[in-house]
Design a protein that fits this description.
It contains three helices and ten strands, in the order E-E-H-H-E-E-E-H-E-E-E-E-E. It is α+β, with helices and mostly antiparallel strands.
Amino acid sequence: MAIKVIAQRREVKLGKNPGKKFVMRPDLYIPIQEKKVFAEAATHSGISAGVIKAAWDAAGEVIRTWATEGHSIPLPGLGTMRFGVRSKAVADLEDVKTSLISVRRIIFTPNVELKDELKNTSIQITCLDEEGNVLKRVTSSDSGDIEDNENESTDSGNNGSTGSGSTDNGGNTGTVTPGGGDNTGGGGTAGGDEG
């Protein structure tokens, strides 16, 4: 099994070095129908697809309910999920208001097994010219590092907060998780030639 990526040459007009560059994008990320997931799970477990669907629907309802109550919910075999918000930080109590919240978020934290699966999955890159002709194919030899938004750096002065936020228009950005007591930063802008 491999993750498939296309690197196609195109004219890049933004960034520090504009010009013709190979820009990567995912290949073959096609949504799988829900009924196919249940059928495959039934094959692997010996439980009927109908029973699996009923259990999955019930679990989904419980996850939605508990997440809105501020809980971090285990997703067996995958990791945990919780709700949070991205917001600006302010110094004065009088400035704390709901307008500081810029976006609501669903935060997924993969477990070690899922991270290991990704780390050990090869990446196959197909290089194309502007017309879509194949120039070469490459199989990954990277270190397999996994992005970890949860533990980028720790700010010990803030009651269990994790900070990697950036400043945006003079305000600090971060993530607030109800009931979680953390303030995980992740704001800012990303530049470069990503596709």
